[in-house]
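Please complete every field before forwarding. Incomplete forms are returned to the sender.

SECTION A: IDENTIFIERS
Entry label: holo-159
Bound molecule: zinc ion
Molecule representation: SMILES string

SECTION B: INPUTS
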Amino acid sequence: MADRAYMYCPFCRNQGSPKVELHRDNVDMFCLMGHKGPHGQILAMNPEMIKTTVRFQPGPNDVKAEVWVNGERLLKAKEALGDRFHPTIASLISCCMAGEPVIIDGQQAAELRKLGIRNGQEMLAAAKENVQLAGQNQSLTDEVIKWETRIAGAMANIN
Ligand SMILES: [Zn+2]
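SECTION C: PREDICTED COMPLEX
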């Protein structure tokens, strides 16, 4: 029995057909064009994942809410977020209820990602590490000043 692998065939991709779907059984992955290989071999070729679109369904306790928002921005947001529009807005509202949220925009998020920081937990870890390093830096500076003072004192005694 074959299941969908939710990936596109990398052999087909390399031959110029990037949208041929892979199927899998317990041993192999294969496509309708006759390509076949063990899971590990196919995965090593970095097959492109098929993104499954999850249709938004309101939960049993959800209500439809009205908010005042700039019309142009609303259109752009719906266009940009697509199926993720409702869950994104709903999770933003939830976020605001968990203490005081720190909101960062997409550009800041992109810069964080370049630094290897992908979520709030990693942001917090980086900030804590920064505080710790600043503390270490201060005690090293204090130590250097202490030694400079001692040396200056010793030099004054020599002269
Ligand atoms: Zn193929």
